[in-house]
Recover the amino acids of this structure.
């Protein structure tokens, strides 16, 4: 190794990374990144228009990152999402620019900048010295689509050309135009639905076994299957929560019906959705055991009716399960309330029995409570009597007003009669 190679090794950091769906094919490699010198503002001399954004949080989707660096998308030739070894809560992005000036400007603009005003994570941008792919592990015998060249974008069906538009390769090795993937707000891949937010290592809640795990879709209990200690089955028998999700295959099992509740599952071979328990083999002599050979319009009508029946079935299952869940939790809540009330009463009685002074205070408190209740009753009676007497007083006042009015009218009438009599006498 010459002196220049040794100096480059001293100035770079080594990061091991991987990409691809671990169930299908996983590609591993090593990237050498120039170190950021906090005491120097000079950029690396041997830098290339290749950058790496380290430790991007998992909750940030591809569309979010494209929007974050939207002003530089037109200068980006390729972006590749990789997963750093030992960092499960974040991922990294390798970005290749069309010119060195754009890469330098991107580094100056985004290095140390927060992804958003509501987050503490900052954008850590480093220049990449070199990237090597060390191995490729295939978990199936078939060759996945990600290992072959993809000349067309799966979204817009246009040719993937770096000169016309930037290309983004997801963590599962599917390539898209940056403009197309920026409209995809989900964190999963639009082709295989592989999600970059992988769940953590789960274990059985009782025996801590990490294998053959099932999660209750009603309350979230995680237990091992019947091939281990069967804690998931025991949970169903105790709570009657009959639906459980297998964490490895994402399939839902119905303990009551003793079968899977859905018709479509994800194939382990290529990650596509296939029909569960489909027995039509399409022999060379022709398909005669299913609706494949019937008229297309009739087949479509049958398919629509099946889909509608499945939707209705799922709605009924969901409604019944929610009702059962409501009754179950209401009964648990009632039991807890009764238990708390009983324990409180027992604790008060126990405390009173242990302390005679508290007993005397309790007797005095009960007496005061009874007196207060008696006074409250008297107050209520007085209040009601007050309203009655106020009504009677108003009635008497009205009666007096009427009597005074009649008296005044009588006096006026007598005065008129006297005046008439005096006039007659004078005459």
């Amino acid at each position: 190794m010459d002196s220049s190679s040794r100096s480059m090794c001293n100035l770079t950091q080594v990061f091991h990374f991987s990409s691809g769906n671990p169930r299908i094919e996983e590609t591993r490699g090593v990237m050498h990144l120039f170190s950021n010198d906090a005491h120097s503002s000079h950029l690396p001399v041997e830098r290339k228009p290749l950058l790496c954004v380290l430790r991007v949080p998992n909750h940030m989707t591809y569309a979010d990152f494209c929007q974050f660096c939207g002003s530089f998308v037109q200068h980006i030739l390729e972006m590749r999402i990789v997963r750093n070894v030992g960092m499960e809560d974040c991922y990294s992005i390798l970005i290749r620019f069309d010119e060195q000036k754009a890469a330098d400007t991107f580094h100056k603009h985004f290095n140390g900048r927060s992804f958003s005003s509501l987050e503490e994570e900052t954008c850590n941008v480093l220049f990449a010295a070199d990237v090597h792919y060390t191995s490729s592990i295939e978990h199936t015998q078939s060759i996945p689509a990600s290992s072959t060249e993809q000349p067309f974008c799966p979204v817009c069906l246009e040719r993937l050309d770096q000169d016309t538009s930037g290309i983004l390769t997801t963590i599962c090795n599917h390539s898209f135009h940056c403009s197309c993937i920026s409209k995809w707000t989900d964190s999963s891949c639009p082709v295989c639905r592989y999600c970059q937010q992988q769940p953590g290592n789960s274990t059985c809640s009782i025996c801590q076994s990490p294998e053959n795990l099932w999660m209750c879709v009603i309350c979230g209990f995680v237990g091992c299957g019947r091939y281990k200690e069967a804690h998931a089955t025991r949970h169903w028998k105790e709570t009657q929560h009959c639906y459980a999700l297998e964490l490895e295959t994402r399939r839902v099992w119905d303990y009551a019906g003793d079968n899977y509740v859905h018709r479509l599952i994800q194939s382990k071979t290529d990650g596509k959705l296939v029909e569960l328990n489909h027995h039509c083999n399409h022999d060379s002599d022709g398909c005669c055991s299913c609706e494949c050979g019937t008229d297309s319009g009739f087949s479509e009508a049958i398919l629509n009716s099946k889909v509608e029946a499945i939707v209705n079935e799922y709605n009924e299952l969901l409604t019944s399960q929610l009702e059962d869940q409501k009754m179950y939790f209401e009964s648990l809540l009632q039991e807890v309330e009764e238990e708390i009330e009983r324990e409180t009463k027992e604790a008060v009685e126990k405390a009173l029995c242990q302390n005679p002074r508290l007993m005397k205070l309790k007797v005095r408190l009960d007496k005061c409570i009874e007196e207060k209740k008696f006074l409250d009753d008297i107050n209520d009676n007085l209040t009601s009597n007050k309203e009655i007497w106020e009504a009677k007083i108003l009635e008497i006042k009205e009666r007096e007003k009427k009597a005074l009015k009649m008296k005044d009218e009588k006096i006026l009438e007598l005065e008129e009669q006297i005046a008439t009599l005096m006039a007659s006498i004078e005459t």
Observations:
- The mean pLDDT is 78.
- The radius of gyration is 41 Å.
